Amino acid sequence: AVGDGVLLAKDNAIRPQAYATRGDMAQAVLALTRQETFAFTYARVEKPINLMAGPSEASEVLLECARHWHLFVLDEENGWLLVRIPGGEIGYVNKEKVEVHEESIALPLITEPAVSLTQQDAAVRLQMLQEKFPDGKYWNNPDASVSYDSAANNMDSLASNTPCEHELPQKDFSTCAFHTGITSVPFAYVPCPQCMGYASMLSDLAFGAGAPVRAHRNLAKSKVGDVIRIVSQSHSAVITAIQEEGFEVTECNRDFRSCEIEWGRLITWREIVDEEYLILTRYPEPESDGSSQILYAPAEVPLYEKPGDASAVSTLERGEFVYVIARQADGWYLVSRESGENGYVQAENLVNLYRAA
């Protein structure tokens, strides 16, 4: 209880028979209630399977889901699961061909205070983090004494001098470090190992785990400190500098084998645009009111240019995730899509998955 901040040790001593004060109880109640339980279902792919356009083997094949993918389950229909894959696409998989897991995790509302940073501030913080996670080390120390649930909890001992050397066809994450940070929701990786966990951890350490998170695909709006997912969104890195030719990044496990930490690699614009990519940013929209909420559409939801417009400008797809920029008193949300498009939706049409702040 003391270690988790539920009770306070007085004079560096624990006295279980001492009387509790009102302050002690206030601290305990605050610590115990500042979290939100998030229940979800995901399907783990053990052998490559097809993502189908409909709940039938006769439907169009959209793409192949690779081994070890975690698919976020949205619905079930006649033995088929409607899922969202890590890249964001929606489709169906045969329930009998995947492992279905039901999880319930307690997510802290604010695990570390969010801070408003400039790009210069973010660059300085990343430079400081480079001292803790230096080039050439390996982000793979699975120390059981370290909490991976939050960047606020002692993340300093996660680098080692020994590579993982796990083989690509049969990945074994047991020797990798994990972090359940910004990539846990809505991208259905719980927990996050290797490159995704490393990038998520640095982002949380730089901006605070309570900072907002939203996704977009506009390279012109990318900033230092943003997480970029490249190589068809199978590899994650943190942008440390923006050059004329592209981004300088820090990353781990670029070889998909060793979990080695690397700083300063230049990823050119051509490399990025030739592959499917996604930008995760912790910088709020200029119009933001401080909201930090990820919602998803359980069905098609109209998106309007202004609240109360007669006709919609577009439609959110079933299973699509959006980031809340601001909330209106009359039940409308200003939201941002992964495509970068902004618009207004009625709050009652969306489902709350995770509130980071």
Question: Outline of this structure?
Answer:
It contains 4 helices and 24 strands. The chain has helices at residues 22-33, 119-132, 194-207, 269-273; strands spanning 35-44, 49-52, 61-65, 70-77, 80-84, 90-94, 99-108, 138-139, 159-160, 178-179, 192-193, 214-216, 227-230, 235-242, 246-252, 261-268, 278-281, 293-296, 301-303, 314-316, 321-327, 332-336, 342-346, 351-355. The strands form 7 sheets. A 6-stranded antiparallel beta sheet has the order 12-17-13-14-15-16.
Outline the structure in words.
- This protein has 357 residues and is mainly β.
- 13% of the residues lie in helices and 34% in strands.
- It is built from four helices and 24 strands.
- It has helices spanning 22-33, 119-132, 194-207, 269-273, and strands at residues 35-44, 49-52, 61-65, 70-77, 80-84, 90-94, 99-108, 138-139, 159-160, 178-179, 192-193, 214-216, 227-230, 235-242, 246-252, 261-268, 278-281, 293-296, 301-303, 314-316, 321-327, 332-336, 342-346, 351-355.
- The two termini are 23 Å apart.
- Residues 107-112 and 144-154 have low confidence and may be disordered.
Radius of gyration: 21 Å
Strand count, sense and barrel status of the largest sheet are: 6 strands, antiparallel
Helix share of residues? 10-25%
Shape: globular
Class by SSE composition: mainly beta
Span from first to last CA? 23 Å
Q: What do the pLDDT scores average to?
A: 80
Care to count the β-strands? 24
Write the H/E string, N to C.
HEEEEEEEHEEEEHEEEEEHEEEEEEEE
Low-confidence stretches: 107-112, 144-154
Strand content: 25-35%
Number of helices: 4
List the strand order in the largest sheet. 12-17-13-14-15-16
